[in-house]
Design a protein that fits this description.
- The protein is an alpha/beta fold and about 600 residues long.
- It has 3 domains: about 1-135, no CATH class; about 200-345, Alpha-Beta Plaits (2-Layer Sandwich), CATH 3.30.70.270; about 370-600, EAL domain (TIM Barrel), CATH 3.20.20.
- The protein is about 50% helix and about 15% strand.
- The protein contains 20 helices and 17 strands.
- It has an 8-stranded mixed barrel, surrounded by 4 helices.
- The chain is rod-shaped.
């Protein structure tokens, strides 16, 4: 549109020029006419000398005066000096005259007025037509800017071509931006390392499942925690850590691929969540078992203490995302308190378990600060004369309702909130204080160590310093570790047990006898005590194969100098069979139930 403005300006300039020419050219002709009259008067001026009447006017004169100047008035000022007073000498006498200008003025007016009017009409009409066409074009261009379909593309109209080209460029840029926005939206809901959905996509899909109109629809949430990521990053570098995490994701994808509609997300640095439609328990059984096998194989292949842990929970429409995530966290934390690569499932709504992390952290810190931990003891009955008594210490956690928090939940949340070491230190310190107060040198006191103790070098240093303070008390302590924990963390377990022996304390392997791998572990660790798993004792009197297996364990253990104590003894028949196998002691509800350590005075026979 700007290109049309110089044309309009040129049209106005041409109109002004032609208008000026229509005035100036007739004026110039009339002016030349006056000059011609003056020449004629100058040619005929000698006639005045011979004329008898010297005042007679020559043709072309308007006034004449001899000897006296005429008035200075110039009524035809537009002709300049040509219409002013003229002077001649007649026989030494000055003669003054003025030209006749009426005819020249009339000639000028008769010529200039029609030309000026014609110029105004022609150029005014052209200008108005140009303005009308220009306004139409401007409106057309404005409509074209708003709607490219309103234009009729003309090869001769560069402005219209430019506008349509601008629309095409704008459309292309818009499509590019839309594509970039789509990619950014996808990337905004996708984890860059694993190509899984991120936590935003997870919360979106979780919310959709929980607000499903189908009230009978059920779904399952699985969270897999890549527990070795931090250690891998520290020992081998972040590149190895990224590869480890991608390997875990690959195993998860392999397991969930046959499950229709299963979607995986990376919701934190170490946590991979999977949303699956269907009942939780059968899915947990199938997926958890298969994934545990793959993780265990990966653990042994890469020489890890543990590859990952798994937690399952059920989703039902109407629940809040926070409730579901808390239960999944609790299930995951319980799995971390058990064997490596294990899985747990939490389905029910329980008031204590539905507490959020911040509430649990506050309660646990209050327990720690106020020593709100109750120590319980369950003694074993020792058959060998002269052998010190064996008393296992348990921890209970009182709540504000004159009851107790579930022990498994507490230990799971301690693991989840990274408070295990602080509580383990507190329990050991409280146990030692009460043992000193009791002054029972003929008794040994067994304390259970959690898997977290094997993973904390600072805890091992602290425990060693504590045990070296009083060797008399230390010599009466026995530290128990579960067989499955030692089996999967053998190097760390042996380091812990060697430190315990070096300080003068003793060690025990609890829940012993899961298979023939137990014999290899017995040879590797050589503990002071082994405690037969309660599952071996449960149907011992009826299962001859189980009896033979237990006899082999007792025989090998005693040959290696280990004392054998059977856990979970609840019937007299079980006790009789075990005694016939020459076990060193029996422990269970048949012998004694757990009681408060503060009031314990020894096992009564």
């Amino acid at each position: 549109m700007r290109e049309t403005r110089p044309f309009g300006q040129a049209l106005l300039l041409a109109g002004i020029i032609f208008l000026l020419l229509s005035l100036l050219l007739p004026w110039w002709a009339s002016y030349r006419f006056l000059l011609h009259q003056d020449q004629l008067i100058d040619r005929h001026f000698p006639l005045l000398v011979t004329s008898e009447n010297h005042t007679a006017l020559l043709p072309g004169m308007a006034e004449l005066s001899i000897g006296h100047p005429l008035a200075a008035d110039n009524q035809a000022w537009w002709f300049g000096r040509a219409a002013a007073n003229h002077q001649r000498l007649l026989e030494q006498t000055p003669v003054f005259y003025r030209l006749e200008t009426r005819a020249a003025t009339m000639q000028w007016m008769l010529l200039s007025l029609p030309l000026s009017l014609a110029c105004l009409l022609v150029f005014g009409g052209l200008y108005l037509r140009w303005r009308r066409e220009n306004n139409d074009k401007e409106q057309h261009y404005r409509a074209l800017l708003l709607d490219p379909e309103a234009g009729q593309l003309s090869v001769r109209d560069p402005v219209e071509q430019g506008i349509l080209g601008l629309h095409q460029s704008h459309r292309h840029e818009l499509e590019t931006l839309q594509q970039q926005l789509t990619e950014a939206h996808q990337q905004g809901h996708q984890d860059s390392l694993t190509a899984l959905g991120n936590r935003y996509a997870f919360r979106r899909d979780l919310g959709l499942m929980l607000t499903d109109d189908n009230k009978l629809a059920t779904a399952t949430l699985l969270i897999v925690r890549a527990s070795a990521l931090q250690d891998t990053n520290t020992r081998l570098g972040f590149q190895a850590g990224d590869q480890y995490l991608q390997d875990i994701v690959r195993l998860i994808r392999k397991v969930i691929q046959p499950v229709l509609g299963a979607r995986a997300y990376r919701i934190s640095g170490t946590d991979i969540a999977v949303l699956i439609k269907g009942q939780c328990e059968p899915l947990a059984q199938s997926l958890g078992t298969q994934l545990r096998q793959d993780l265990t194989h990966y653990q042994h292949l890469h020489e890890l203490d543990c590859a990952a842990y798994m937690g399952f929970t059920q989703l039902l429409p109407g629940q809040s995302p926070e409730q579901v995530l808390i239960r999944a966290d609790i299930a995951l934390a319980q799995a971390q308190g058990g064997e490596p690569n294990g899985w747990r499932i939490v389905l029910k709504h329980q008031g204590d378990e539905d507490l959020g992390e911040s509430q649990w952290r506050q309660r646990l810190q209050t327990m720690l600060a106020e020593d709100r931990i109750q120590l319980m003891v369950q003694p074993a009955q020792i058959r060998k004369p002269g052998m010190p008594g064996y008393n296992e210490i348990y921890s209970h956690f009182p709540n504000d309702n004159d009851g107790y928090y579930p022990t498994t939940t507490v230990f799971a949340m301690l693991q989840r909130l990274d408070l295990s070491m602080l509580f383990e230190q507190k329990i050991i310190e409280m146990t030692l204080r009460q043992i000193v107060e009791k002054n029972m040198p003929a008794q040994r006191w067994a304390l259970n160590l959690t898997p977290a103790s094997l993973q904390q070098n600072s805890f091992l240093i602290w425990l060693e310093r504590l045990l070296l303070r009083d060797t008399n008390i230390t010599s009466n302590l026995v530290f128990e570790l579960d067989e499955h924990v030692l089996e999967h963390q053998l190097v760390a377990g042996k380091r812990l047990l060697e430190m315990i022996r070096r300080c003068g304390a003793r060690s025990a392997v609890s829940k012993f006898g899961h298979g023939y791998g137990s014999f290899r572990l017995l040879k590797e660790v050589k503990p002071d005590y082994i405690k037969l798993d309660a599952q071996l004792v449960k149907h011992l009197e009826e299962d001859s194969t189980n009896q033979q297996f237990v006899r082999m364990i007792v025989d090998l253990a005693q040959r290696l100098g280990c004392h054998v104590i059977a856990e979970g003894v609840e019937t007299g028949e079980q006790k009789r069979v075990l005694e016939s196998m020459h076990v060193d002691g029996v422990q269970g509800y048949l012998i004694a139930k757990p009681s408060d350590l503060a009031s314990f005075r020894g096992l009564a026979f």
